[in-house]
Amino acid sequence: MKFSNCVLILALILVSASLRSEVTADDVAKRPNIVFVLCDDHRFDCLGIAGHPFLETPHLDQLARDGAICNRAYVTTSLCSPSRASILTGQYAHNHRVIDNYHPVDPDLVFFPQHLQAAGYETAFIGKWHKGGEIDDPQRGFDHWIAFKGQGTYFPDGRGTTREVPQTTYDGLNINGKRVPQKGYITDELTDYAIEWLADRSDEKPFFLYVSHKAVHSDFVPADRHRGRYDDQPLPIEVPSVSEMNAGKLPMWVRNQRNSRHGVDFGYNLKGFTPEVYYRRYCETLLAVDESVGRLRQELADRNWMDNTVFIYMGDNGFQFGDHGLIDKRVAYEASARVPLIMTAPGRIPSGQSFDGLIANIDIGPTLLEAASAKPLDEVDGMSVWKPLCEADAGSLEGRSVLYEYLWERNYPQTPTMHALLGTRYKYVRYHGLWDRDELFDLQNDPGEMRNLIDDEDQAVRVEEMNARLWEMIQSSDGNEIPILEDRGSTYPLRNPQKAPQASFPDEFFK
């Protein structure tokens, strides 16, 4: 009897395993392909469809018309490596602990592409990895790997640059562990590699392609075919005067940063720096990225994959071009923390959708895993927004807010540690470890964030409530402890003696 029972049980197990195997194979065949394109430093308003006065982005505009353009997309840390780590892990920087551009990701952290692999996906990473400084070795979660060290370079000979940014490298590409020279303009070359990989795919397994552009990271170098296109265009950004910054009650550190490496008075320590010229080159550099999106989508169309492909385009952070007297990023202002996010999924995400629900970079992994019917990540701070997008239901995200954080870097001492609440009409920013003002802005009536209401008596209760909410979010996500990592890289503390003087303490501090 015992032997018979064992035989019966074994038979049931084999049948069950066989059925699971058949279901799994069928499920795998039905899963959508996924293409995720990440652009470096792409601010939210630099799109033709966003109403830009001269920038031409026809392929991104068409992408938005074919799916959803997400009007309230943010990153939770406006800095390359932390933001990219948040995309891969679904976690805030204080949890994944990549808080600068010099330290690698903890080897025990799980990336969402690993779950796609487990769900039967073929995966590829092509482009800028930029976590851990000079690291470009093949990483977990990817079957195919093409990357470069640090920031790489637009052209292999470095031509067209006015300065070499930190972590610029000329070592070519790491292709599946083999060093290969860079041949041409980096945006075009990465796109070529992506299309080459797509050409080797079949319909037997779904794929996940992650194209991570160097562009449009400074120093901005457009492709030769685009250089000079916008030479005569004005800067469509209002650069405030010192007196306007004072009148708006901006913190001392913001007024002081104006005359620093990351300010308009001393931009990157370059003689004769002007945000107008820098902005024109930035827009010209974006043109090749737009063309890249068009080429990738054309390849999908040529292979009849468009109808079964989720296509996502996103910026890893924004960029300041004189907003608040600043350049670069890191800050919680809209120009720095808000990014373009466009998603298409024919038959799933309604086309022509202008989606106003709050979405953050920590939501990308959870969202794509749900779209792929893959196992969710175990430890995340973000959430899936797949159903709200598919149902065109921004109202389901009403009242949501996310935490913004930036942790002070010795390399760039101009910008302090800060935490902020993103996603509501009012933005509250708390600065940590310095003798200065915090900030409160009414984004509805002051979209440029130039009237700080933090000391307005009528806002006292709101400030108290938002401070309590901020701490609730910090504590609920285990953010009470700030990671402190050893110093790496150069520091840039210089000021221009001929430009804006040192800011004074606020009048309300003198009592």
UniProtKB/TrEMBL annotation:
SUPFAM superfamilies xrefs: Alkaline phosphatase-like
Keywords from the UniProt entry: Glycoprotein, Hydrolase, Signal
Gene Ontology MF terms in the entry: arylsulfatase activity
Family matches, as CDD domains: G6S_like
Domain Sulfatase N-terminal as annotated: residue spans: 32-372
UniProt-listed Pfam families: Sulfatase
EC id: 3.1.6.1
Signal peptide: 1-25
Coiled-coil intervals, chain numbering: none
Region (Disordered): 491-511
Keyword Glycoprotein: yes
Enzyme class: hydrolase
InterPro entries: Alkaline_phosphatase_core_sf, Sulfatase_CS, Sulfatase_N
Keyword flag Glycoprotein: yes
Family membership noted in the UniProt record: Belongs to the sulfatase family.
The name this protein goes by in its record: Arylsulfatase
Species in which this protein is naturally found: Rubripirellula amarantea
